[in-house]
Amino acid sequence: MLLLKELPTPKSLEKFAARYPDTDIQAISDFVSLLRASADISQALDRLLARYGLLQGRWWILVLLLRQDNLSSSPTDLAEKAGVTKASITGFIDSLEREGFVQRLPSADDRRKYQIRLTAAGLQKLDEIIPDYNRKIAGLMSALSLDERHDLLSLMKRLVANLEAMQ
Q: Residue 133 is inside which H or E element, if any?
């Protein structure tokens, strides 16, 4: 992901608006700041997970499997829940399987299908990471009161509900 490290200055935004007169400078500035904050948070999560030999893609697959009562899911369901393609999920599963964190189990109903199951090693990996993850997330979120978090999430949901404006 390309990260815009340098946010636009008021002068650069004015230059932009001079060329494109219908520009809402404040909307552009706020939007880019929001993107930057979310990218910074995502990078911080990647740095935390990298200490444990993971990045977000593989991490979220392990977490999704942990959520299941039987610690198993189909690749299709994992791809859907993770918001990635089946090809991407296959790559994540392959690498997690190589490390022994997941295993492919044949489907009882259809030989062409299989389930992905979290192994004991995968569960042990999560047990190693999650306490630190929980502490770090709580520390990050402590910058906001519960009311502020509620307001922030409510505002973000409104933005997401308005994404058709980007189409």
A: helix 120-141
